[in-house]
């Protein structure tokens, strides 16, 4: 009787060990695989494409919170600047007219640049993104030259808007 009991307990130990190995194997595979790649619902992670995280840029005073604060200040400053430019005549205060022209162009440039950064990112559009960004920069420089020429050699921005408004 004792030999049957010993054989049964040895059999139970072997079965229990095999069951434990089988049931714990997925956890071991999952723990080993979790260190290599993270699980993403809906598909695998591809290296070197749009699935990679964006690297942190080096600190710069022209980006980040300073950039955001400048955008807000420029947007908020356009309201009193526009009122002041139209309350006074543009020909009497050409510097105010020039500041308004440059501020409007810079406000537009920042807005269009934000669109390009959001929708034509160079990682997703490696050719079209940089081309669109440089086209915007060239157009901004061209518009700034045009505003300067218009304000110095012609009637100026506020006088033009006032004439169009009363026409």
DSSP strand tally:
0
Indicate the low-confidence ranges by residue numbers: 28-35
Strand portion, in percent? under 5%
Shape: rod-shaped
Q: Count of helical segments?
A: 5
How do the SSEs run, as a string of H and E?
A: HHHHH
**Residues in helices, as a percent range:** over 70%
**Biggest beta sheet attributes:** none
Helix vs. strand class: mainly alpha
Mean of the pLDDT scores?
79
Instruction: Kindly report how far apart the N and C termini lie.
Output: 117 Å
Q: What's the gyration radius in Å?
A: 34 Å
List the helices and strands and how they pair.
Blueprint: H1 2-36, H2 65-87, H3 94-119, H4 128-153, H5 157-166
Helix pairs in contact: 2-3, 3-4
Report on the structure:
With 167 residues, the chain is mainly α. 72% of the residues lie in helices and 0% in strands. The longest helix is centred in the N-terminal third of the chain and has 35 residues, at 2-36. 5% of the residues are buried.
């Amino acid at each position: 009787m004792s030999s049957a009991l010993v054989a049964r307990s040895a059999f139970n130990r072997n079965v229990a060990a095999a069951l434990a190995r089988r049931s714990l194997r997925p956890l071991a595979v999952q723990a080993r695989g979790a260190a290599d790649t993270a699980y993403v619902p809906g598909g695998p992670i591809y290296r070197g494409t749009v699935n990679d995280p964006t690297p942190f840029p080096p600190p710069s005073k022209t980006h980040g919170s300073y950039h955001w604060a400048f955008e807000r200040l420029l947007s908020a400053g356009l309201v009193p600047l526009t009122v002041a430019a139209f309350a006074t005549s543009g020909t009497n205060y050409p510097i105010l007219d020039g500041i308004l022209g440059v501020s409007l162009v810079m406000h537009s440039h920042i807005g269009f640049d934000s669109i390009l950064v959001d929708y034509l990112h160079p990682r997703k559009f490696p050719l079209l993104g940089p081309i669109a960004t440089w086209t915007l920069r060239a157009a901004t420089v061209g518009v700034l030259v045009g505003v300067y020429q218009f304000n110095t050699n012609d009637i100026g921005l506020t006088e033009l808007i006032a004439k169009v408004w009363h026409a």
